[in-house]
Amino acid sequence: MPRNPFARKKDGDTPPAEKKQGRLSQIRDVYRVSKETDPVIGWWMLLAFLGTFGLLVLIGILLSMPWIFGSFGVLFGILAATIVMSRRAERAAYARIDGQAGAVGAALVSIRRGWYTDREPVAADVARPGDIRSAAMVYRVLGRPGVVLVGEGPSGRVQKLLAAEKKRVERVAPGVPVTTMRVGNGEGEVPLPKLASKVQRLKASITKDEMSIVNKRLKSLGGIRAPLPPGVDPTKARMDRKSLRGK
Fold this sequence. Notes:
Strand content: 5-15%
Number of helices: 8
Strand order of the largest sheet: 1-2-3-4
Largest sheet: 4 strands, mixed
Number of strands: 4
Helix content: 40-55%
Order of helices and strands: HHHHEEEHEHHH
Shape: elongated
């Protein structure tokens, strides 16, 4: 019986050549997008490859097995170059959104499974209507360490928003740890590229079952409590997903 041309393909039906081409295409796209922000990424990749290859060839010469170790040098050199590309691509992705309204939300949703995250802020304060950079916003995530509130924007107004939001959370989830952070490059602030890892390193304090209960209570608080200025859409500040592939 002839195969239905409109039938949906399964993963196993995809020819190996197409899968391989897809991966190569992804790597090429990651490199192209990252190079726009990091022009020297190619040189770092070349340095990683040559350093790894040269080291293994040297070991092979010392052990009188240069061809064997040379072959391994090519494979591990490619791996080293790919790792370097992945790390620098991640930095480039953060650099592209750093300073934009909504950058914190985009960074938080990149956190791995086990957390309740949301791209949209739960509180906002605007000093000058229409001025995106004047917006102070607070985002909320929930995990085993408890509730984490992260603020972005002018420090003074962010601190007030964080304090007010912390009180709201403590009213509906008493006893649950609430951690506050400010994103920025100043004293006491967390740089955007390090935000996700810092949140994930917090010490676990509640169980998964307790997380589920707390999440339901937090939803009862509703969404954002103050209107954003015209033209501000925190959902539009996005990480470049292609730049994070290969991690």
